[in-house]
Automatic annotation (TrEMBL):
Protein name: PI-PLC domain-containing protein
Signal peptide: 1-30
InterPro entries: PI-PLC_domain (IPR051057), PLC-like_Pdiesterase_TIM-brl (IPR017946), Ricin_B-like_lectins (IPR035992)
Keywords: Signal
A Pfam family the protein falls into: PI-PLC_cat
Top-level division of the source organism's lineage: Bacteria
Gene3D superfamilies: 2.80.10.50, Phosphatidylinositol (PI) phosphodiesterase
Length: 459
């Protein structure tokens, strides 16, 4: 019989977890200019890519091999050239104080590339202090699209050269792979399934995001659950947009109980919950208090040195019994002003621990938009997908769904999940997706994409 593990009084202690976590290793040759090859020139500030737009060089949302964003790097004496893959003979260059594409034979196409830290570089006009730079963000707006050449400093003038075809490594053995190396199948709006209860008003409920209940989702391999919670007199309730006119909605504690029961019955499994959170912290705390056994499985990365040392091995989390990770998209600042923070009772603030791409690929039918960029990039927020910290790599939540769930479209999209993850979102984030979030996980075999990504590590 498995020994019960209470939170922070486990057989494998929090201190042991902190001692066994593995920090992400720097890329080989990270202190040198990369070898010749095809790269994205990616801003360290925004995570956006330098793209050729009719001669102007602008920062655009990462779009893989679309949108003229790929550049062939090669040496030219002591300097380097970046030739656009879509326009042979045309290179990233300078036109006065603006970045432009120019003929590769032009002196304005040459760059002095200098390492400025692990895998980061400046691109300078040779013999000057003029660098390729992102323009500062005006008040109330995003950074301008057009890239400048000037005396920029810091991250504004710092760039990643992200390989289009990166060298990956085989996945470590089960007992050594860390949480940030593993990919999990994730159900978008997992509660909106029409099986466990109501989730939306009439007519809206005709378009469920899933068609199987939480218990069956768990049985079929779903390990990430996106849940929307709204505050009502009954507590934290699972509804889409609003609980008004929703028949038989499910309380959050009910679905969490299903997950905890599953974890207690399957001690080798790990589950993550993402809350789109519209409730007061006191209401959420009371809701969690109703879940029997929660303290036995709740994982607290804030108490095990993850920010300093990286994510622990999955085997250590399993041994400690810490196998349920809960995130909220709520603001820490708002909770501090209210006098109660969610992480004080074990719910992590998602923006502090993850990065996440924008949630929609477009409407429920027609062509899809595969660009992969941060959902937290706007006039007031800038958390690029590329964000890392010394010793710590945020988990990457990759959204792959539309505004509205149409079964035939979801099936087609899910069949292309691995391709988008590898060619578009992985280089956009400079990390492998840890959570592949889809609608109708039962269509298009998205589990095959999870299996594929779990054969290697990146970088």
């Amino acid at each position: 019989m498995r020994t019960p593990h209470a939170l922070l009084t486990t057989t494998v202690t929090a201190a042991a977890l902190a001692a066994t976590v593995l920090a992400p290793a720097p890329a080989a040759g990270a202190d040198a200019v990369p070898s010749p090859g095809t790269y994205y020139v990616q801003s360290a500030t925004t995570g956006l890519n330098a793209a050729d737009n009719a001669g102007a060089v602008e920062q655009h949302r990462p779009r893989g091999d679309e949108d003229r964003q790929q550049w062939n790097l090669r040496a030219d004496g002591a300097q380097h050239l970046l030739e656009n893959t879509d326009s042979p003979g045309t290179c990233l260059g300078r036109g006065g104080d603006r970045a432009r594409t120019v003929a590769c034979a032009s002196p304005e196409a040459r760059w002095q590339i200098t390492p400025v830290g692990t895998d980061r570089f400046t691109l300078a006009d040779p013999g000057t202090d003029r660098r390729l730079t992102v323009a500062p963000k005006p008040a109330g707006a995003n950074h301008p699209a057009g890239l400048a050449v000037g005396s920029g400093t810091g991250d504004l003038a710092t760039w990643y050269l992200t390989p289009v075809g990166p060298v990956t490594q085989p996945m470590p053995p089960q007992d050594r792979r860390t949480l940030d190396q593993v990919t999990f199948l994730t159900a978008h709006n997992a509660y909106a399934n029409g099986v466990d209860g109501g989730f939306a008003p009439p007519f809206v409920n005709l378009f469920p995001n899933q068609n199987r209940g939480i218990e069956r989702q768990l049985a079929e391999g779903v390990r990430g659950f996106m849940l929307d919670i709204h505050q009502t007199p009954d507590g934290a309730i699972l509804c889409h947009n609003s609980c008004t006119l929703v028949s038989r909605p499910v309380a959050l504690w009910v679905d969490l109980q299903r997950m905890v029961d599953f974890l207690l019955a399957h001690p080798d499994q790990f589950v993550t919950v993402f809350l789109e959170d519209y409730v007061d912290p006191g209401v959420l705390r009371a809701e969690l208090a109703r879940v029997r056994g929660l303290s036995e499985v709740l994982y607290r990365p804030d108490r095990t040195g993850v920010r300093e040392n990286g994510w622990p091995a999955m085997a250590d989390l399993t041994a400690a019994g810490q196998r349920l990770l809960i995130f909220s998209d709520h603001s820490r600042a708002a909770d501090q002003s209210a006098g109660l923070t969610r992480d004080s009772f074990g719910v992590m603030y998602q923006r502090e621990w993850t990065v996440e791409n924008y949630w929609s690929m477009g409407s429920g039918a027609g062509t899809s938009d595969w660009s992969c960029y941060s959902r937290w990039y706007d006039a007031g927020t800038n958390i690029p997908l590329t964000r890392t910290e010394p010793g710590f790599r945020p988990l990457f939540v990759m959204n792959h769904f539309r505004d509205t769930t149409v079964a035939s479209t979801a099936g087609t999209d899910n069949g292309k999940l691995a391709d988008r993850a590898r060619r578009f979102c992985q280089p956009a984030a400079r990390k492998k997706p840890n959570y592949l979030a889809v609608d109708r996980y039962d269509l298009g075999d998205p589990a095959a994409a999870v299996t594929s990504l779990n054969t290697y590590t990146y970088p």
